[in-house]
Specification:
Nucleotidyltransferase, domain 5, two-stranded parallel ribbon, about 140 residues, alpha+beta, 4 strands, two-stranded antiparallel ribbon, single chain
Length: about 140
């Protein structure tokens, strides 16, 4: 199957917490479970996760049961015909835009999904280091 899907979890500033890249023939909800499983035991203060409408349904209950997280789906406004910034959802979209500026991530060049995940982590590490380096105080 050609094509890949990227699932990311970011903090409120858009910095990466976890990523999963998989084949496009896997449903979004199943991909979300894969990325949420990577959060288990790593972020004990994490309580709430905002998600796109594609992640509604059984995933909300699954997230509560497995991680104790409250998964809140950000709904699209009814009768939306033009672009509209969705609350909380724009943070993830901005992170995808940051990743897309990296040449290796602008298209799916890699043979293995794990390689793409590594490039995503590498790109976000560089972005975070640049921000720390120009920070006036620590």
């Amino acid at each position: 199957m050609k094509g890949r899907k990227r699932h990311i979890v970011v903090d409120t500033q858009g910095l990466l917490l976890a990523v999963v890249v998989h084949a496009a023939n896997i449903q979004d909800r199943d991909g979300a479970k894969l990325v949420l499983q990577r959060l288990l035991g790593r972020f004990p203060r994490l309580e709430r996760i905002w998600a796109d409408g594609a992640y509604a349904g059984k995933l909300v209950r699954w997230a509560r049961r497995i991680g104790g997280w409250r998964l809140e789906v950000v709904p699209h406004p009814a009768q939306q015909h033009t672009f509209q910034v969705l609350p909380r959802r724009w943070v993830v979209e901005r992170t995808f835009a940051w990743l897309g500026r990296q040449r290796r991530l602008s298209k799916d060049y890699e043979g293995l999904p794990e390689t793409t995940e590594t490039w995503i982590y590498t790109t976000m590490t560089g972005l975070m280091l640049r921000r720390l380096a120009r920070s006036p105080t620590f």
